[in-house]
Amino acid sequence: MYRIVASDLDGTLLTPDHSIAPYTRDVLQRLHQKGEHFVFATGRHHIDVAHIRQSVGIPAFMITSNGARVHDADDNLVFSRNVEPEVITELVNMMKDDETVTIHIYRENDWLLNRVDEDLAKYHKDSGFSFTLFDPENPPLEDVAKIFFIRHDHDYLTAYEKKFIDTFGDKVSVAFSTPFCLEVMAAGVSKGEALKAVAEIKGFSLDECIAFGDGMNDVEMLSAAKKGLVMETAHPRVKATLPNNEVIGSHADEAVARYLETHLL
């Protein structure tokens, strides 16, 4: 029935401590042995995700940076779309004087910050992938997969979400990956478009895809797949946007793996 299984990571496939649990690893390995095609679909950087994939022990495509990058099971880059340089310049200029917000930039092989944020280490404790600093007065403009902004105040960032959309319109894609992380990608970039590209490469259709997610950056993917499952702990905006999608359990209970074992194995 389904040939491609796509899943978000944080808040979905990973446990609350941002790791792959043994039961989930076992289910994904059995799913691969059965001939299903698993896809990691996340806002994370591909270098980070490659370590997670290695820990799971299966070949899998990786949709990363919310769809701005797609790598195949052999780490070949098969899809890429960058944020326009003038957009990056204006975004950094808009945000660089706000000391309550941390600016992040993902490039092909780099993760750049405008200031140190040690709290981020918990997300990358297994991969060891870490950031370097950039000068906001001279930000990198080439090869930027996404630029994103973190502050632990969703309402505060929501005001910036509106400002970005009003300023750039259809030049960008804007989405929250978590309530505290507002992300900007190139126009037309989403996990949903990337999943469509993966399905075409593999010779399948979106009607043969099932997907799992919990964030606003998952909405396009959950809508594009034949069946899109929403985590119990998903942000209320996700549930309001997808009121007819089935809601499953929590990532703390490995709900994705339990669903896959029950319905696909």
What can you see in these coordinates?
By secondary structure, the protein is of the alpha/beta class. It has two domains: 152 residues, HAD superfamily/HAD-like (Rossmann fold), CATH 3.40.50; 102 residues, 2-Layer Sandwich (Hypothetical Protein, Haloacid Dehalogenase-like Hydrolase, Chain: A, domain 2). The protein contains nine helices and 13 strands. The protein has a seven-stranded mixed β-sheet with strand order 5-4-3-2-1-12-13, with helices on both faces. Helix 2 runs parallel beside helix 9. The longest helix has 15 residues.
What's the short story on this structure?
This protein is α/β, with parallel strands linked by helices and 265 residues long. It is 33% helix and 23% strand. The strands form 2 sheets. A 7-stranded mixed beta sheet has the order 5-4-3-2-1-12-13, with helices on both faces. It has a 6-stranded mixed beta sheet with strand order 8-7-6-9-11-10, covered by helices on one side.
Enumerate the strands of the largest sheet in spatial order, edge to edge or round the barrel. 5-4-3-2-1-12-13
Report the structural category: alpha/beta
Gyration radius, in Å: 17 Å
- Mean residue pLDDT: 94
What is the helix/strand order? EHHEHEEEHEEEEHEEHEHEHH
The tally of beta strands, per DSSP, is 13
Task: Determine the fraction of residues in helical runs and give it as a percent range.
Answer: 25-40%
CATH class of the largest domain: Alpha Beta
Q: What would the CATH topology of the largest domain be?
A: Rossmann fold
